[in-house]
Structures are given as structure tokens and as C-alpha cells.
Design a protein that fits this description.
This protein has 76 residues and is of the alpha+beta class. The chain contains three helices and four strands. It starts with a strand and ends with a helix. Helix 1 crosses helix 3. The chain has one domain: Glutaredoxin (3-Layer(aba) Sandwich). It has a four-stranded mixed sheet with strand order 2-1-3-4. A hairpin with a 2-residue loop joins strand 3 and strand 4. The radius of gyration is 11 Å and the shape is globular.
Length: 76
């Protein structure tokens, strides 16, 4: 699984990266996690509101910070 956390470096973006790493660990998923901060790369995904989460090339959430349960569901 390939996961990208999109965000320019704000507190919510950093929190989403942290929560994503924790969720992957708790779920026992084998995944690569990349933090994307370049605004042009973020725009290539069609994302206008960050933070956003991309799983295997598909934007699954943007513009907010999901709860732990929802995040795990998005990754499962």
C-alpha cells in the first residue's frame, strides 16, 4: 500500500501524518508513507484543501482531520 499525506506543513497536516503512521502500525499494514509538502504536487491530485490523504493514488479524504476510527477504515 502506498500512502501520501498531502499538506504544506501546518499543524493539522503534521498531525495527520502522525495519526496515519500510528494507524498503519496498529493495523499491522505494510505500507509506505510519504509526506508531500510541495504545493504543485498537491495540486496535481486536484486537492484544494489540506490536509489530504491519498491511498494507492486515490484521494480518500481532504480538508479535515479524521478521527482514529475513520482513519483506520480509510486504510483498511
Amino acid at each position: 500500500m502506498e500512502i501520501k499525506v498531502l499538506g504544506t506543513g501546518c499543524a493539522k497536516c503534521k498531525k495527520l501524518e502522525e495519526k496515519t503512521r500510528n494507524a498503519v502500525s496498529e493495523l499491522g499494514i505494510e505500507a509506505s508513507i510519504e509526506k508531500v509538502e510541495d504545493i504543485y504536487k498537491i495540486m496535481q491530485f486536484g486537492v484544494m484543501n489540506t490536509p489530504a490523504l491519498v491511498v494507492d493514488g486515490k484521494v480518500v479524504m481532504s480538508g479535515r482531520l479524521p478521527g482514529n476510527k475513520e482513519l483506520k477504515e480509510l486504510l483498511s
